[in-house]
TrEMBL record:
Belongs to the mis12 family. It comes from Sphaerosporella brunnea. Transmembrane segments: none annotated. This is Mis12 protein-domain-containing protein. Residues 136-173 are annotated as: Disordered. The keyword Iron-sulfur does not apply.
Length: 173
């Protein structure tokens, strides 16, 4: 199992054009939207049935109110009971999605979107195919850099002092 390193994530990100976590987050967010849409549809469906179909009884000797179309209206207690059940179902589904998709995220990040750290130097992306990284000049050393200690650093003047953009708070320098 590959160890997730900054370098392997950078290679995968550069290759795909987006971070691996973005894919996982988009999948989880899409599932959440579908779940919330399903819960809303279920609530609308339940509220469209006559209360008696769902087991709510009209007390003997009373007549249930009806709306303009003649459909029986829900009492406040009945509507609250449906809403409470819908809220419990939504919470149950949210918890199931959270716990199972945490496992999914770990699996994807470790097994699908990861490159073995020892393979990272061997990965050559398409836009790197004609580059020769071996011919890069060596990094300068402290001995190869010349510092003229006779020249003092330039004095700060009103024109070369860094300023904060308008509206930005002043920061310590």
């Amino acid at each position: 199992m590959p160890i997730i390193t900054r370098e392997s994530t950078a290679v995968v990100t550069e290759h795909l054009g987006w971070t691996p976590l973005t894919l996982v987050d988009d999948i989880i967010n899409s599932l959440g939207e579908l779940m919330y849409g399903g819960v809303e549809s279920l609530e609308n469906m339940l509220m469209s049935f006559p209360p008696e179909v769902l087991g709510f009884k009209t007390p003997a000797g009373t007549i249930r109110d009806t709306d303009d179309s003649g459909a029986p209206e829900w009492t406040e207690d009945e509507a609250n009971e449906i809403q409470k059940g819908i809220t419990q179902l939504e919470t149950l589904w949210e918890n199931a999605i959270d716990s199972n998709f945490d496992k999914f995220e770990i699996f994807v990040m470790r097994n699908i979107m990861a490159i073995e750290p020892e393979l990272v130097p061997w990965v050559r992306l398409e836009h790197h195919k004609d580059l020769d990284f071996g011919s890069l000049p060596a990094a300068p050393t402290s001995d190869s850099m010349e510092i003229d200690s006779a020249q003092p650093p330039p004095a700060r003047t009103a024109t070369n002092i860094p300023r904060n953009p308008p509206g930005e708070p002043a920061t310590a320098r």
